[in-house]
Here is the input.
Amino acid sequence: MTELLQLVVNGLVTGSIIAIAAIGLSLVYGILKIVNFAHGDYLTLGAFVAFTVNVTWGFGMAGAALAAIVAVALVGFGLERGLWRPLRRRGSGLIGLFIVSIGLALVLRNVILLVWGARPRRYDVDVFQVYELGPIRLSQSQLVVIVVASTAITLVGLMLARTRLGKGMRALADNRQLAAATGIDADRITTYTWLLAAGLAGLGGVLQGLLQNAFTPSMGFTLLLPIFAAVILGGVGSAYGALVGGLVLGLVMEVSTWSALAGGIPSVYKPVVAFAVLIGVLVLRPQGVLGRARTV
Here is the structure.
């Protein structure tokens, strides 16, 4: 049971990062119906901004994480005003916006490569510090990820459930025309959605960089498929579903290596198991765990 407990905790750590990124991606799709293929590169940008603040400028990780959140949120805001909004007003279809997002992902990845180079980067943190909580062993980075991610997820959940902004976001995601007819400022909510989604991506990138210890410009791209899987698993357009989907995927990926399960699978195949579960869920419930069935 000790091994299983350790794997469950590891799964929650991994799943919380996926969930943070998936919430933002799901909100953007739910409100704007944009499949933002560049979302993974937002995570990478956040990790490298934090690296600059932490290692190059010598600030602590708290300041580096805050700088990453703000920087990526501002990038998201700038792209909304300079790219996505003009495209929407010109009537670009969903396929066109998706293709643009692929191009944007390539641009961001190559800008990161040009500015920071291809070699792996590391934060100035103690990677050997380990804490023992009963039978569970947690590195300092894992403990930070759990505390920060759980706090961020709780705050986002409260914002969506209790604040006027959060209720506006959920209303737009549910029915944009009806929400606009009730007086909700769709443009303002859209802007805040991009700020929130990009800021969460920046935070997720910092946490993933801490968890991996070393990261490269392709880090976000490798996370993109699990993030999309979490969104689909939870129900496309549902922020709460993305949260559940991310945590479930993280747990499945880690627990699949448990030795009691016929020896477990090699760690390299963990994503394969996660996608197998995703396929099974979609066969039984195509709208996802918290999604609603729709007819066309």
The chain has eleven helices and four strands. The first strand starts at residue 121 and ends at 122.
